[in-house]
Write a structure and sequence with these properties.
Length: 761
């Protein structure tokens, strides 16, 4: 078995609405293996993976139809099942798989994915393992093979998959924000496979997100929050209570500062985060010296400040309001009278809720130098056996990133403390901020006597609010999304055009919009264009040019040609469009194949589906308005549609009409020239006129006014089928102006009354 080709389908495709990996396999000798033998190999691998055989296909989606029995497909189906199981065991869940025959005895194996690189590696590993097993079954080697045993190959391969999954995993805080955006219908795109940076929304409405820092967060504000001493200075100026302290750069300075403050002090790096290098409750010179050395591991400038008595709290502020508050507790274990501290920590770290870093809702507890210091303060060490029921604290700080836990206390926060936290965030200049404060009772207003604000975070983790260990979960992700977008969904209007003549129709629509003063992004076979200027050239349209247009911050309206080949190779670049335009036929594509990809585009339409009366696409686009276009007003499908009150763009009595059943809006007369005769709709002139009608219908479905439609389409109406052909891209505006000079049309939309019926003509 060999991989012939492979395609990452990053958007809606002929198999699923979700991203998929398509692998074309040449089964070679494996095609002749008995199906029972192949199934035995598959079951052996799944048993080693402790994964039950599974197979699911999506409902109501092209390609998701039940799969007919096919013994010849057994090896390909085995690759599918094992690859899916490997992805799930690597921590990237997927539930969709599909296998179908291709050309020349090859098979297409389709697997959904969460991480595309994990999916690619999983398919390769599944193929390698199955190939080896089948070779052993069919022709046992005379001596042990040089490859490692199957179990070792599987363990090593799975470890590599997990490492890749972890390296490319999205943090729980960022994931909560992205999940909230998805619920709101806001599209999101990861900028690179491993970067924790995303674009939310499209075009002129897009926003950036990195971890929990939004694109609206100022660079200066982030710099201030990173400098704890500068933060304290500004907060003190705003009347926010902060602990007394100073910065030092040597141990001698640290000792003098601690003595001057008196009592217990906290020692921490000036620009640290996640509690790294922070030591609290330092009372002796030795404790200060040890704390200073640990803080120096994370920065050269150190803060020595008065220790504030009380519990550690985090208040999340987003969009000028308090979203959530949590009581944070340091990492700890409870003795059982038998186990050592080390064993108790190991047992707690096996908790499925704990993971490395920010990969899970809790972080594994480290047994490091700071844990040793915390234990020493309790007269314990890692190999001590604490009494049953004794709580052993393993950290001087309560950060979740060092193994701490959190309890929601949002409802206990007094109005005065809420106002103080909002004022603190505004003073620093942060739209999203994590306010760290220490107080003995969070229910008592923070006034300088009951605690103080000790730190402000510009990229606050929100998993403690979304997944608290106790108390009410808060949808902090939704609050951050609301602070970024308000009630907007981050989308710009989008028209997608598919089928024969899509490039010409795309250019007509784009020209009309741009003439109306709308900033456009356009993709045609010639490349990607923004406001009529070429951004990329000669790439045939499809996924990547569409991504270029949707990511352009100037674009207010996108018009995208969606070629058949592009959908098969990469899927769509968008999950949803406002209007889908489906033209009949397709160059170089069989009717069935064209219908399959056309259905993918149609299913993304959220507002309307524009299609030709009597086309061959069948019943698609359910749930949205259908707008017809056609050059033959007597066509039965068109007449029935209008009789039901449907809308259409049609040619009637020598004029381009927009109709909604009883009413007619005549945009412009079409002079019957040899270039525009509708009598042979499948010749080039007829297809050109059909394209003009399709463009008019799409613009009407998008809510454009009639005067805008007629002004934009006028150059194309009597200029002939060659009009669009003479325009290789929207940047040829001078060509459109020249064409417009030759057009003989009425100058305005007319309104007439016929009998008792108002007809707009």
């Amino acid at each position: 078995m060999n991989i012939v080709e492979q395609h990452v389908l990053r958007g809606p495709n002929v198999y699923s609405a979700q991203p998929c990996l398509l692998t074309v396999l040449d089964l070679e000798l494996a095609a002749h293996a008995p199906a029972g033998r192949v199934d035995a190999c598959r079951r052996r691998l799944l048993a080693l993976l402790q994964a039950p055989p599974r197979h699911r296909a999506p409902e109501e989606w092209p390609g998701g139809s039940p799969q007919a029995p096919d013994d010849g497909a057994a090896p390909a189906r085995a690759v599918e099942d094992v690859a899916m199981a490997l992805q799930c065991l690597a921590g990237t869940a997927t539930g969709f798989g599909h296998t179908e025959p291709g050309a020349a005895g090859r098979y297409r194996v389709v697997c959904g994915y969460e991480s595309e690189q994990v999916a690619i590696d999983a398919v390769e590993l599944a193929l390698r393992l199955l190939r080896g097993l089948l070779a052993d079954e069919m022709e046992p080697p005379p001596e042990p093979p040089p490859e490692p045993p199957l179990e070792l190959q599987l363990a090593d391969g799975l470890a590599a998959l997990r490492a890749t999954a972890q390296r490319r995993a999205i943090g729980t805080s960022t994931g909560a924000i992205l999940g909230a955006a998805t619920v709101r219908g806001i599209p999101s795109t990861r900028i690179t496979p491993e970067a924790n940076m995303f674009t939310l929304g499209w075009g002129a409405r897009q926003k950036r997100l990195q971890a929990s820092i939004t694109g609206d967060t100022g660079h200066i504000a982030v710099g201030i929050a990173a400098d704890k001493e500068l933060t304290k200075t500004l907060l003190r100026e705003a009347g926010v209570p902060v602990p007394e302290g100073t910065t030092v750069r040597s141990l001698e300075q640290a000792l003098r500062a601690a003595r001057r403050l008196g009592g217990l002090v906290t020692v921490k790096p000036l620009d640290g985060n996640h509690g790294r290098g922070v030591t609290t409750r330092c009372g002796t010179d030795d404790e200060v010296a040890l704390a200073f050395e640990r803080a120096r591991e994370h920065g050269r400038t150190i803060i020595v400040e008065r220790f504030i008595q009380g519990a550690d709290h985090r208040v999340l502020v987003a969009g000028g309001r308090v979203v959530a508050a949590a009581l944070r507790r340091p990492a700890s274990v409870t003795g059982d009278g038998v186990s050592t501290v080390r064993q108790l920590v190991e047992a707690e770290n096996r908790n499925p809720a704990r993971g490395e870093g920010h990969s899970n809702i809790l972080t594994r507890i480290p047994l490091d130098g700071q844990a040793e210091t915390a234990l020493a303060g309790q007269d314990l060490h890692a190999d001590s056996v604490p009494a049953a029921g004794r709580r052993v604290v393993l950290r001087g700080n309560a950060n979740l990133s060092s193994g701490g836990t959190a309890e929601d206390v949002t409802d206990r926060l007094p109005a005065q403390t809420r106002a103080t936290c909002v004022r603190a965030a505004r003073k620093i200049g942060l739209d999203v901020a994590g306010i760290d404060l220490v107080c003995e009772d969070i229910g008592v207003p923070l006034d300088g006597r009951n605690g103080a604000v000790i730190e402000i975070n510009a990229a606050p983790g929100i998993r403690m609010h979304v997944h608290p260990s106790a108390g009410t979960p808060r949808d902090a992700g939704a609050a951050i999304v609301a602070s970024m977008f308000g009630d907007d969904d981050g989308r710009i209007p989008l028209i997608a055009v598919a089928g024969d003549g899509a490039a010409a129709v795309t250019l007509m629509i784009e020209h009309t919009l741009r003439r109306a003063g709308i900033a456009t992004g356009c993709v045609s076979g010639d490349g990607a264009f923004v406001n009529g200027q070429a951004v990329t050239r000669g790439d045939g349209g499809g996924y990547w040019p569409a991504r270029t247009v949707l990511a352009a911050p100037e674009v207010e309206f996108a018009v995208l040609e969606t070629p058949h080949a592009g959908i098969l190779e990469h899927g769509l670049a968008f999950d949803r469009c406002d209007v889908a335009v489906l033209l009949d036929g397709g160059a170089g594509a069989a009717p069935d194949d064209m219908a399959r990809t056309g259905a993918v585009v149609a299913r993304t339409a959220a507002r309307a589906l524009v299609r030709e009366a009597g086309d061959r696409h069948g019943a698609i686009g359910a749930g949205v308005e259908t707008v017809y276009f056609g050059a033959d007003p007597a066509h039965p499908a068109l007449r029935q549609h209008l009789a039901r009150g449907g809308r259409a763009a049609l040619l009637e009595d020598g004029a381009l009409m927009l109709a909604d059943g009883e009413s007619r809006l005549r945009l412009a007369r079409v002079e019957a020239t040899p270039h525009t005769t509708p009598h042979e709709p499948h010749d080039s002139a007829g297809r050109h006129l059909a394209g003009v009608l399709a463009a008019a219908a799409a613009l009407m479905a998008s809510g454009l006014d009639a005067d805008i439609i007629v002004a934009g389409l006028r150059p194309f109406l009597t200029a002939g089928a060659g009009a669009a052909a003479r325009l290789p891209g929207p940047d040829r505006a001078e060509g459109l102006d020249q064409i417009a000079e030759t057009v003989r049309l009425g100058n305005q939309v007319e309104r007439v009354q016929v009998g008792a019926l108002i007809v707009q003509a």
